Amino acid sequence: MAPEVVFCIKLCALLILSPVFVHVKGNHPHVLPQAHLHTCNHKIPKEKEVIHDVQLEPIHVIRKRSVDQNLRIHLHLDQSLNNLPKGLRDLVQSKILKAIAYWEDTLKVRATRVPIRLNRKCRNDNVIYKDGQRYCLQGCDPVTTCGDIQIPEDHLQNCQYVNSSNGFSMINNAGNGVSGADFILYVATLSTQRCFVDQTIAYAAHCQLEAALDRPVAGYFCLCPNAISTNRHEYEILLSVLKHEILHSLGFTAGLYAFYRDSSGQPLTARDPINNKPPYIPSIGIHQWSDKVIKKFTRNNWKLKSGTSVKTVDMIITPNVVREARLHFNCSTLEGAELEDQGLNGTAITHWEKRVFENEAMTGTYTQNPVISRITLALMEDTGWYSVDYNNSEELEWGADLGCDFVQKSCFEWIETRQIKKGDIHPFCNEVRQGSLDTDCTRNRKAVALCNLGRFETKVPAKYQYFSSLEGVNPKEIEMYGGIVTLADYCPFLQEFVWKTGTEIMRGSRCSNLENSLGNYSLSGYSCESDTGLTIYVRGKPHVCHYEGQLISVQFMSADWLHTGEIICPACSEICPDDGTCPAEQKPVVTVDSIEASSLKIPCSAKSFMYGPYNSPIVILVAANLLYCMIIYFCYR
């Protein structure tokens, strides 16, 4: 028998559950399959918040070296972490170390053999240069910070300044610096104003760049103490958030695109001959990059419900990103990787487009199972500062091999074209979340999911309206329906969810969770045979899947409750990919597996509240208010 595979079982069950209904004020749906677990609140540092030209070794020496040394990150924990309860502090530190270890194992840099001594902040940010050296025109500030975190004196270089005689002087107050490191990461837990925007868990940025290649050598991230959860379900999300934020400080940010270099170390954006910096645009607070890094492209036939429009997209077009994006989507004409066009400064342009990359970890909001893909690693390689280990990338299933139509056209056109052909609109969906818990399985069969198509309190913007009709929806209200993830251009898609009791998350919907498996009932496995094709086993009994979508009915008793439903057969070719294994599809009668048939005395409806173990007054009261029949898919191995 082949290894276990996850199938979906459609069960009609009587459950006393609190479904995941989340009421959000403003223009948001009434119900959500899952709240956004993290919205990135990255803020591009202002010009005065970034200090340039940290001197390491001679510039010509560094530029000649190969990019072959694993990145070494020195972690400096601010005293504010001591304000956390010990258990929470230990959790945070362990996840930070794990996130750092991932990037140290994934990225390589040019070797340096001297301590990092960071530059001091100049008073009033008045800086001048002489012979390539940086001097403070009005002396040095007594305190130098990285974001909101004070840099220790021992990490700082001498103060170089212009004296009263207009001579160039130096106060010999250098610290020891940080040895054995290529990047210093300052971490604090502070309840700043930014912590109360959306659902921010942490935010990060770079703060100092070295002189040879403009690579960041210092950055910070701040954890919002009130947003850190000790719920085990959210541990992996916390780790992903930390990886995401650290990557912003290492280079994935609109604040650094203009400093990217080619593989030989030459700038991709032209430099000012006086200060050797790319042009700075005060009105938008960034250094302007060239079209060797990001380029605008026009989609002239962008199809919408209201007709055809023109859409302009910003795309990273550096060589490794182009290669990986084309391979991932299976689109040889794809110009690059599309960047987010919604959100404020720090969301737009600084993340991958959510519609195109969905659960890639470097999109602007997390919805489910975030992964660091080869495309993100390719961007880090294209900074000119790092080489990357692609073996450490994670599989991005969203959009894989779906072709140019998926990645270069609107989700409206994708959905409409397939509906006309009566085909599958995957990865999008059109089931409206209403009273019943109508769930599905994710395409990889690893989790239960809900279509996140919901009703908004006001009309969805016209360019994000995708349906002329929806089952069970008043035609006059169609314009109020859309996918609840606005950064994904309101395109609805299947989304993993969580069970909650009040505000407490009980568990997620992934099939690997033991809580999601009923006792004494399982799919024990499957087999692939050339004469019969795919056979699945229910409690040891074989059932041949003659065609995709075939229903195998099941019914069983559990804790005095009757469950009935069907196993939905997948395509044989999906589970048994070897040539010659899958015969032609045929459609015989539906197979019925009457599990525990002799004891099936209770119909699929409510039984007496005074019957069985549920007779305590509290349970009776709760059950009277919450009991209803829901349709739910459970996944089993």
From TrEMBL:
UniProt: Zn(2+) binding residues: H244, H248, H351
Documented EC number(s): 3.4.24.-
Positions of the catalytic residues: E245
GO terms assigned for molecular function: metal ion binding; metalloendopeptidase activity
Positions of transmembrane segments: 614-636
Gene3D superfamilies attached to this UniProt entry: 3.10.170.20, Leishmanolysin , domain 2, Leishmanolysin domain 3
Pfam short name (any one): Peptidase_M8
A biological-process GO annotation: proteolysis
Family note: Belongs to the peptidase M8 family.
Name used for this protein in its record: Leishmanolysin-like peptidase
Origin species: Sinanodonta woodiana
